Amino acid sequence: YFCKDVGLNSTFTREGCLRHGFIEYVGQPFVQLNNAYFMYLFFFISGFFAPGSLDKKGLRQFVRDRVKRLGLPAMAWYLALGPSMFSFSAAVAMGVPFSYGQHGLWIFPGPPWFVIVLLAYSCIYGCVHTADGGLPCRIALPRVGTFLCVGVVLGLINVSPGDTPFPVFPNGIAQFVNSAVFFWGGITARRNGWMQQLEQLQGPAIRFLRALTFLLAALIWLLATASFRNDVSDTQVRVIQGVFSVAASLTLLDLFRRVFLGASSIVRFMSDAAYTVYLIHPWVLTFAVWAYAHALRAFGVAVGRTCTLIHPGMQEAGQAKVPLAYLVEDEGEGLLWLGWGFAWSVTMVVVWPLAYGIAKLPGLRQVL
């Protein structure tokens, strides 16, 4: 956070630390837009490939493979990588007395929640499909309007139960429902040849989906900016996100089918490293932010360290989910933009080759 005052007696406020063009017009809208579809499309794609793997390997080998490919990395994060990263962030980066496992944090959540959820979904699907005699559920490809109606229902679900964390789902029951629907959609699409039928969509339908996706993206960006700036409810954004998740997924699937036809050496490299990138990127990003804070100090910029216990105002400003943070004293926001560029570029330059190397290590090749 970039604040006007980072002294020990300063108060964390929206006016003092969050009134930046980068946060209001770029950061928050981008997060809202990305969260609307990104992980759900992952679940759809994972569900799409599950039937072929189950048919080829059989239930026992299918489950064993999922435990190895998903269960082991999930355990590695929740029991080792996650807790050790938080311990490092607290004790080293923030200077807060903290040891591994303190306050019950020997299990620590994080981005790999997707992996453990995917393991559960895959095992449930494998068992149900086998118990049902291996007979696929025949469902004709719905019309575009039907898909969008499903999006409306998902949007209403987004605002109904709230966003209180629900087991491993950081954004609550709505995230559970959305991810389950998209995973089931991927399975159904594979069993019924939906993707081949989607290729036959006429030009007007494709253009309508593209225009709708662009319109909804712009609307989410605008409403997310307004709700964050005025500190008001983002109910409208969440409803629209449900429709956007479906429209954007259909649009992107069609776009990649048409444009990205070949597999270059760069694409193969990134494909081999992508899973490991997902697992280790929080560590690399943490080091990048830590390095940037030290660089600012070296140039004489005042940098403080805080958490919600030190600055209760963080919770009042809606930042309660941020456990630890740097406070940088600056009247403008040039260093904020520079920090984003530094953290992003360093993370990208480091994490991809590092992940590729880890994935190729003996013993990890069959897991990652």
TrEMBL record:
Q: Which residue numbers delimit the Acyltransferase domain?
A: 33-287
Q: Which Pfam families match?
A: Acyl_transf_3
- Mark the transmembrane ranges: 37-54, 75-100, 106-128, 140-157, 169-187, 208-228, 240-261, 273-293, 337-359
What highest taxon heads this organism's lineage? Eukaryota
Question: What GO terms are given for molecular function?
Answer: acyltransferase activity, transferring groups other than amino-acyl groups
What keywords would UniProt list here? Membrane, Transmembrane, Transmembrane helix
The name this protein carries in UniProt is Acyltransferase 3 domain-containing protein
Give the organism the record lists.
Answer: Zooxanthella nutricula
Organism taxonomic ancestry: Eukaryota, Sar, Alveolata, Dinophyceae, Peridiniales
